[in-house]
Design brief:
alpha+beta; 18 strands; 9 helices; globular; Rieske Iron-sulfur Protein; four-stranded antiparallel β-sheet; 2 domains
C-alpha cells in the first residue's frame, strides 16, 4: 500500500531505512547537527577560567571553555599541528592554556597559539592563523549553543523562534528565568535507538495512556492522546487534586517568581529542532539535550533546574525528578523496542500516523527537505 492508498485517517511515516542506514545518518550529521545550532553545555558547568567540556556535535568533537575574562568560547578539539585531539577527557580544568599531549603545541583560552617547542625559531608562523578553529557560540537559557556552519542560520529564527512558535511570544519562556536557575539533578541516558524515534515520541501523546500512568495522573488530558506541544500557547492543566508536578502529585516548590498566573499549574513542552526538548512547569524547568552518536545510539542528557535557593538549601527534589525520570525511562524503553523493527521488511515502506500524530508529518517533511528529499 502506498501513501496515496491510505485512508484520510492515516498518513505515512518515513521508511524504515531512515532509522538504520549509516548513509542517512551521515547526511543528518552534515546537514543538521553540523549546520544548525546545537545545545552543547550548561554555562554553570564551566565555573571559572580554564574549565572545559568536550561534546560531540555531528562528526566533530568540540571544546567549550571559559576564557580569562569569564566568557565562553568554543573550538574544534583538534591541534593545528598534526591533528591530535587536545582534550581527551569529557570535562576538566586547565590552569592557563590548552596543550596538545602529542607535541606540546599550546593555545590560550581564546584559541591563539602561544607556545610550541622551537616556536621562536619559526618567526614566520602566525600565532593567530595557526590557532584553534573557532566555533560560533551563543548563550540562551543558561546554555552554550554552538554552530559549526561557516554561515550560521539565524539564532533568533531557528532557536528562539521555536519558543515563539510554541508559546506565541518570547516573554512566555523568559518568565521562567531559566538562565538563572540552578542544576538540581542531571541524568544521562544511553538510548539504543535512532534520535528521530525519540523526537517523534516526544511530539505525540497517543502513547501516554499506555505507558505513562504517573504522567497522566498529573496531566489527565494527556490520557486522551492530546499533543499539547502542538497547539500554540496551550499548556496542559494539572489535575484538580494534584498539588505539584511530582511523581505522586504532592506539593512541589513555590512558583518561580516571574511565572504568570495563567502559566501556573500548567505544563508546556517545546521542541527545538533538531535535538532539544524544553519542559516548563511552574516551579522548575526540565531540559533534554540529545547527542546522536550513531544511527542506532543516542545519548540524552536531562537537566532538572530549580530556583537557586531550592538547590542551595539542600531541599529534597527527588519527587519532582522521579516523575520525569520515569517518563524518560518509559519513553526510551519504547524507542529501544521500536528500533529493531526499523530494519524489518515489514517496515520497509514505513508505518502510519493516526490523526493525533499527524503533526509528526510536519517534522518528517522538514527533515526530508533538509536532507535533500526522500531519496536521502
Amino acid at each position: 500500500m502506498t501513501a496515496t492508498d491510505l485512508p484520510p485517517s492515516l498518513i505515512a511515516t518515513l521508511p524504515g531505512r531512515f532509522y538504520t542506514d549509516p548513509d542517512v545518518f551521515r547526511r543528518e550529521q552534515e546537514r543538521l547537527f553540523e549546520s544548525m545550532w546545537f545545545c552543547a553545555v550548561r554555562g554553570s558547568d564551566l565555573a571559572g577560567p580554564g574549565a572545559f567540556r568536550t561534546v560531540q556535535v555531528g562528526r566533530e568533537s568540540v571544546i567549550v571553555t571559559r576564557n580569562r575574562a569569564g566568557e565562553l568560547r568554543a573550538f574544534l578539539n583538534v591541534c593545528r599541528h598534526r591533528g591530535a585531539r587536545l582534550c581527551t577527557e569529557e570535562s576538566g580544568e586547565v590552569r592557563r592554556a590548552l596543550q596538545c599531549p602529542y607535541h606540546a603545541w599550546t593555545y590560550d583560552l581564546d584559541g591563539k597559539l602561544i607556545a610550541a617547542p622551537n616556536l621562536v625559531k619559526m618567526p614566520d608562523v602566525d600565532r593567530t592563523t595557526y590557532g584553534l578553529v573557532t566555533v560560533q557560540l551563543r548563550e540562551w537559557l543558561g546554555y552554550a549553543w554552538v554552530c559549526l556552519a561557516d554561515e550560521a542560520p539565524s539564532f533568533e529564527e531557528t532557536v528562539i523562534g521555536a519558543a515563539v512558535e510554541r508559546l506565541g511570544d518570547t516573554a512566555s519562556i523568559e518568565r521562567y528565568g531559566t538562565e538563572d536557575l540552578a542544576l538540581g539533578r542531571r541524568i544521562t541516558y544511553d538510548v539504543k535507538a535512532n534520535w528521530k524515534l525519540i523526537v517523534e515520541n516526544f511530539m505525540e501523546c497517543y502513547h501516554c495512556a499506555t505507558i505513562h500512568p504517573e504522567l497522566t495522573d498529573v496531566l489527565p488530558e494527556f490520557a486522551e492522546g492530546y499533543a499539547a506541544q502542538y497547539y500554540v500557547g496551550h499548556g496542559a492543566a494539572f489535575a484538580e487534586e494534584v498539588e505539584g508536578f511530582t511523581v505522586d502529585g504532592s506539593a512541589g516548590f513555590a512558583k518561580l517568581p516571574e511565572v504568570a498566573e495563567e502559566q501556573d499549574r500548567r505544563y508546556y513542552a517545546i521542541t527545538v529542532k533538531p535535538t532539544v526538548f524544553i519542559n516548563l512547569v511552574p516551579d522548575h524547568v526540565i531540559l533534554h539535550r540529545m547527542f546522536p552518536l550513531a544511527e542506532d545510539r543516542t545519548i540524552v542528557e536531562c537537566d532538572w533546574l530549580y530556583a537557586p535557593e531550592v538547590v542551595e538549601s539542600g531541599t529534597d527534589v527527588s519527587k519532582s525528578v522521579e516523575l520525569f525520570h520515569r517518563v524518560n525511562v518509559q519513553d526510551f524503553d519504547a524507542c529501544e523496542r521500536t528500533q529493531p523493527a526499523m530494519a524489518s521488511r515489514a517496515y520497509r515502506a514505513g508505518g502510519v500516523l493516526v490523526p493525533a500524530e499527524h503533526h509528526i508529518g510536519i517534522f518528517h517533511a522538514w527533515l526530508t527537505e533538509r536532507l535533500g528529499g526522500t531519496g536521502a
